[in-house]
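Crash report, auto-generated. Payload:
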Amino acid sequence: MTTTHTTGDPKGDGMEGAAGLLARTRAAVDPRLRTTVESLPGQVRRIARYHFGWEQADGTSAEGNAGKAIRPALVLAATQALGGDPRQAERAATAIELAHNFSLLHDDVIDEDPTRRNRPTAWTVFGVPDAIITGDAMCALALRVLAEDPHPASAKASARLAACVIELCAGQQADCAFENRAPQDVTIEECLTMAEAKTGALLGCACALGALYAGAGDEEVEAMDAFGREAGLAFQLIDDLIGIWGDPARTGKPVGADLVAHKKSLPVVAAMASGTPAAEELAELYRAPAMDAAAVRRAADAVERAGGRDWAQSQAADRMARAVDHLSRAVPELGAADELLALAEFVTRRTR
Amino acid sequence: MTTTHTTGDPKGDGMEGAAGLLARTRAAVDPRLRTTVESLPGQVRRIARYHFGWEQADGTSAEGNAGKAIRPALVLAATQALGGDPRQAERAATAIELAHNFSLLHDDVIDEDPTRRNRPTAWTVFGVPDAIITGDAMCALALRVLAEDPHPASAKASARLAACVIELCAGQQADCAFENRAPQDVTIEECLTMAEAKTGALLGCACALGALYAGAGDEEVEAMDAFGREAGLAFQLIDDLIGIWGDPARTGKPVGADLVAHKKSLPVVAAMASGTPAAEELAELYRAPAMDAAAVRRAADAVERAGGRDWAQSQAADRMARAVDHLSRAVPELGAADELLALAEFVTRRTR
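Recovered output after restart:
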């Protein structure tokens, strides 16, 4: 049994298994996702179609790149792991995917991000007002899909997803607030809490909804939520490492992208908090309004010397170990949870 | 029985009855609304408190002016009219008030409105990102309150409110789109559809939720929704008349405010569509980037000569008559619906 992203996969099928599951999830959920989005009114529907990559800005049809379907795959795999029928949980998987994309639409507006999935973001094409409105409608649609689901888990799932959206908001708000503070003033604890709210909460909610749709009891639902949260934190830590040392050819991000953007990512905040000379060097580089290529290399080196890289890697390993512990509370015979484990490894192994 | 805002109130207690009901609604719903808002995280909670007028921007306590509570009063009055216990519907009333305030927060961002209820809008105080995020959290909170309600009507009410939020989005989107079109190109039908989505839908939803919480059947619920929608349209028509001819001392709006803002309100669009010489005169005034006081008077006069004022008044009367027809389908003995009628008259009598 593999427990961290740095450990090998003895079965040798983790990546293949996850990739296959993600492809099957897209195939199972996309038709329902498209039908659901079609229920949106007029221009809002058009912007949603564009955001999902199904349509060009001019309304002609597009290849489609709606993302990796990790969250809906977690829903279906969690249902499966707890002995439920994943087909019964497809509405819940659709709702989770809609909630995720609502948050992307609004995050892009708030962060003024120009691109998403290699295309111009919706707000750059349709304007800020329409992007806000489309996000609002997509959030309400996510909750409508659950509320209209005749499945007995629907009410609990609705309440849980609504609470999760509120936590996503808290995470996004904290992220924005960090941008206005000196990097040394942001503590690791604050940063981890923010990452849990912004990334962990929705992955946890996806797993919890899957458990609810399998008819699981409260303890199993909470254990599955905790599994998803910890796996989500591991995912964020790895993502932050990629943001500094990632291979641009594999990740699509330039080397040191997060440093150039002065992002207070987890390895950076850990390095700043180390009290080492390298921490002061890094803080100095962050005080400058811009970094050239040499400064970016020096900053990455400073994060490493200050222990930020090692810390993030061991934190990610630790979080994955905790995730598996939680999972084993919900699914004592972990063999039944092989899909969930494959997914967790898939999202936390992207540096290799 | 009075059916329009231009007819007298034979009982002589319509306004007093409505004012009393609104005061009682505030007293009944506010404690729950405050407790619910307290469940929001950190900064989001603070911005929500500010928006409701409970706190100043610096966090000190404020007098509080959370609006007139028309929508929650409709919920409670609808429950009462259909023989239910309004106390059982207080969560639903709270949810409706949260959904309304979510839409206000985002509308203020989108329309760049500087003031709301005589105070600086949240986005001007806390910035656009935090105002968007707080609106998102408030929308999710509205749906969470319903989803967590153990009342048997909760699931249907959640689905209905989620659908209503989507319709609000459609209305707001249409309103934004109209701003970018020449006034003559916007048809009356489009404008009425927009007003129904932006104003009527939530009033209809409030009445429908009240009916659901009284255990009413589908037909009564739909009739109550239709009552609220038509009353909402009448309300919007009157509001648009006030925006041109309202008494600034009573309404807080300057005379001709909507004309100065080049707003494509219902009387203006009706006037433009009249094909009269006054319509052309009005279109000419709207083509100018700004209007001085004399131009505003000429524009108001042109709307009147083109028939826009009479049209809006007779439409409002017509909509109120339809509203009462729908209400009588849900509550055949209209005496039981006196509170709903008083509320409908209250919101459509403000020109006198």
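Post-recovery validation: The mean pLDDT of chain B is 91.
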